[in-house]
Automatic annotation (TrEMBL), chains A, B:
Residues 47-408 form the Glycoside hydrolase family 65 central catalytic domain. It comes from Caloramator australicus RC3. Keywords: Glycosyltransferase, Transferase. It holds the Pfam family Glyco_hydro_65C. One of its GO terms (molecular function) is hydrolase activity, hydrolyzing O-glycosyl compounds. Its EC number is 2.4.1.64, 2.4.1.8. Residues 419-479 form the Glycoside hydrolase family 65 C-terminal domain. One of its GO terms (biological process) is carbohydrate metabolic process. It is an enzyme of class 2 (transferase). Coiled coil: none annotated. InterPro entries: 6-hairpin_glycosidase_sf (IPR008928), 6hp_glycosidase-like_sf (IPR012341), Glyco_hydro_65_C (IPR005194), Glyco_hydro_65_M (IPR005195). This is Maltose phosphorylase / Trehalose phosphorylase.
Length: 489, 489
């Protein structure tokens, strides 16, 4: 394999390879470039990040992207949920064929995930590993790894977003559906009905690794609800429109139609914890009853906490390593009122250390969503040049890939207010004080949309493709060529 | 040291050593023998067990007793809570000077427990290790070890029982008080007040190792309540009666009198979870909301569960490895009505696998307490000859020391119904169908009481010491020589 690549390279010659690379990058920037005027270092940071993501990502459906890209030995080159929650979103809207390959990687390791599910006593279905290269679970400490069953729902979410953005039915039929069904089975098996609550999921860890093995992690339950409901939708859709393929999949995984009914029922009855007194979503059943971490008396040098305190000390306090429910507020921003988001955001902001580099970009996005632009800017600035400036003092171990893609998300989903929920494409751009102008591009259903924002105006331009309906702030817009609106405050 | 012992032995000669040993054992049986008529194998079993406990236990305050005694390499020779909850109770009432030495061992490792407390972020106090030889925590898997903070309260309970049975003030002043105060500090620091509940203790594991890192483990909270309250009592008692010694201890550990106030307050307000609907004590805050283990479809060869299921699978179900709250029902049998004990016992019996050899003897004792004699007998018979008959197929790894002492407890506290709470000494003997007669001896405050039970009668005989008040069934008795009563049904 290595020999073949080398032989081909020698045959092509340096000049041709260089030409191809230049062409490749040119095409990438044409459909993906982000411009920021008014901060040259930031402009450099975001392009540096996008370039690293692009070059570090496996595009052959057999390899994926390590947490450190190709730049260091941190995390032993393992792949995490970082792929589905941070990397894939960037690719879906800039270079969707790469997103597809990353999802095909999950399909190609589905048998290992089936084996893992059996090890975890699930008779059917597939449980993806928390960290892996070849598909086998490579975690040593299960409370902060295998217990993160949300990985299954994260993959389902990425499939849903990819499908919505591309309408790639071939992928859905060939790969996506089988992954969705097999992973949905795990949640159906894992959960159970509790009187007065609904469908409950016990003994899991959410994204926040400072809280482990809890019941009804709100993020996990909401993601599982969406997952189960989408799996049922896809089953019915394929059955109706591609029945032969449906029968093939059904036979292959021995799917019982009753299972689909149970997925829908579990989704409809999913318990999402809510605290009536504080009017916020508790991170899990027991989170709010714990003592709040004594942040005031924690010296700066004791962060990240996991290097200075025994896990038991951390687990018994209200303290979050990273965005957990706040991540759900972003991924499912259409399901909550602004007031609710504000209450939740403010609660979790107080107890979150951002000891994980996956956190600030998410807080930045949600801060934008609720109109906290200055705060969003501060969070965002912790992400964009993290490795260029070695903010965490550990770039020697490799770049922070998820954070790099997160900085793209921070601009596009954060300041740009971009969201896509099927037919609904939303933009709500805001501009930070320090910028004069910024622009980004979104690929969606064969269209290429350029969003250009300056201090006064937002311009949406359809660069490629036919008319498409989008929502700009609260206005429904038929985008055919170019439209211009005043920037919201 | 080894040389010295050998030299002394050679000097004494075989015959003298033999004579001494015979004398030693004769004295032991005089004050400790248990007789069972009607089952010779059982008679052999109980004496075998008591002999093993006696010979395996360190009596120099520097050594203790390994989980496998001196007979095997299982558990690497480590000492556990087995000492305080199973071994010491037998010694308190048969050979109290050994109980004292075992408690002095804890005193001699108190500095290590102080170090451990600092590692676990407690600024003051001492946290005893879950498994150790020299006093350092030797556990590799903290959810089922260090998280078992109840070890502190278990040691306090043993000190209390030893003191009540001996009134050994010298021990209390020299060793006990300091241990009690230092260990109490941990619970006061660990817990916090929650509105509507009281003093809550989060992020611990109770005795049941099939449920890990929970909030408000009922056993832990009840034991901590008793511990804090006894520590405060001892502080006040010593201050009043031995003020010099009190000042010495106070200075040494920098005790603030306000701390004692806080111990009392925490004890008075300790939250003991109770389920109003089932009218039982939930094992912890989340136990009852979990799915019940599917015992019906678990093949026999899958026990013990821990060898066949991933911990996450076990943790997310209602399933107990061993007596947890049921142990509290025995240790604090004076605090609950018979009806309450029946409800609790019946609930936990259904979800307990007894995969730990520490479990059946406790269930046997509580079954006796609630009048389930046949059931008690079945549980008891799993303990008495466990190693002689190799019930668990693992006696090659060494004897089960706690279970051996537990078989003594099964007779004395179980069928004999013996309890001691300070001045209150209780006997409620019952006899299993298969026995014709049994007897045991209790040492309490310089008295030696023999309890003899046959199919019709109970005889209490004061073999040594002056008049003492005891309770036989519901009757207060002044025991001076011998009394006889009819056996209760």
């Amino acid at each position: 394999m290595k020999d073949r690549v080398l032989k081909r390279a020698v045959k092509m010659g340096y000049e041709n390879i260089k030409k191809n690379q230049i062409e490749y990058m040119k095409r990438f920037w044409e459909s993906a470039d982000v411009e920021i005027e008014g901060d040259a270092k930031l402009q450099q940071g975001i392009r540096f990040n996008m370039f690293h993501i692009l070059q570090s990502t496996g595009k052959d459906s057999k390899t994926n992207i390590g947490a450190k890209g190709l730049t260091g030995e941190g995390y032993e080159g393992h792949y995490f949920w970082d792929t589905e929650m941070y990397i894939i979103p960037m690719f879906i809207y800039t270079k969707p064929e790469v997103a597809r390959k990353l999802l095909e990687y999950r399909y190609n390791t589905l048998d290992k995930a089936r084996e893992r599910a059996r090890q975890m006593s699930h008779e059917k279905g597939a449980l993806f590993p928390w960290r892996t290269i070849n598909g086998e679970e490579c975690s040593a400490y299960f409370p902060a790894s295998t217990a993160q069953y949300h990985i299954n729902a994260d993959i389902a979410y990425a499939i849903k977003k990819y499908y919505e953005a591309t309408l790639d039915e071939e992928f859905l039929i060939k790969y996506g559906a089988e992954i969705l069904f097999e992973t949905a089975r795990i949640f159906e098996d894992l959960g159970h009905y509790v009187e007065g609550k609904g469908f409950c999921i016990d003994g899991v860890t959410g994204p926040d690794e400072y809280t482990a093995i809890v019941n009804n992690n709100a993020y996990t339950n909401l993601m599982a609800k969406d997952h189960l409901s989408f799996a049922a939708y896809v089953a019915e859709y394929i059955k109706k429109n591609f029945n032969d393929e449906y029968q093939r999949i059904k036979g292959k995984i021995e799917l019982d139609e009753e299972e689909i009914v149970r997925w829908k029922k579990a989704a409809d009855n999913m318990y999402i914890p809510y605290d009536e007194k504080l009017k916020i979503h508790p991170q899990d059943d027991s989170f709010l009853s714990k003592k709040i971490w004594d942040f005031e008396n924690t010296p700066k040098e004791n962060y990240p906490l996991l290097l200075h305190y025994h896990p038991l000390v951390i687990y018994r306090h209200q303290v979050c390593k990273q965005a957990d429910w706040v991540l759900a507020l972003y991924l499912h921003s259409d399901k909550f009122t602004k007031e609710q988001k504000i209450r939740d955001f403010e609660y979790y902001e107080k107890v979150t250390t951002h000891d994980s580099s996956l956190s600030p970009c998410i807080f930045s996005i949600v801060a934008c969503d609720i109109g906290y632009i200055d705060k969003a800017y501060d969070y965002f600035m912790r992400t964009a040049r993290m490795d260029l400036d070695d903010h965490h003092g550990n770039t020697k171990d490799g770049i922070h890939a998820a954070n790099m893609a997160g900085s793209w998300l921070g601009i596009v989903a954060g300041f740009g207010g971009f969201r896509a929920f099927g037919d609904e494409i939303l933009f709500s751009p805001r501009i930070p004080q320090n910028w004069n102008r910024y622009s980004f591009k979104i690929n969606y259903r064969q269209r290429l949309i350029k969003v250009d924002v300056n201090k006064e105006k937002v311009t949406l331009q359809l660069i490629k493709g036919s008319l498409i309906k989008v929502k700009l702030y609260d206005e429904e817009v038929q985008l055919e060529d170019k439209i211009e609106r005043n920037l919201a405050n």
